[in-house]
Amino acid sequence: NIVRGMPMYGRVEGVIVVGVEPRSAAWQHGLRRGDIILGVNRKKTRTIKELTGMLRSIEGQVGLYILRGDSTFVIVVR
Question: 61, 16 in Cβ contact below 8 A?
Fold first, then answer.
C-alpha cells in the first residue's frame, strides 16, 4: 500500500511495487520498482491482499493498470 511519507500518499490508492524479480514475466513486460498497481483487469485494487486474491483467481493473461510518475498505462502479463 501507499504509506505516509510517500509522495502519492492521500492522492492515490493502489499497491506500490517494492521489487521485481529480474527475468520474471513481470520484469520482461515492464513492471518496475516504484510502480503503483492501481488495478487488475479493470478492477481497482487498494491492498496487497486484494491484489494477491485477484491474481490467484485469474487464469491466462493479466492486465495490470500502472501509475509511474505522471503516466498511467497497462502492462499485460501472461
Answer: no
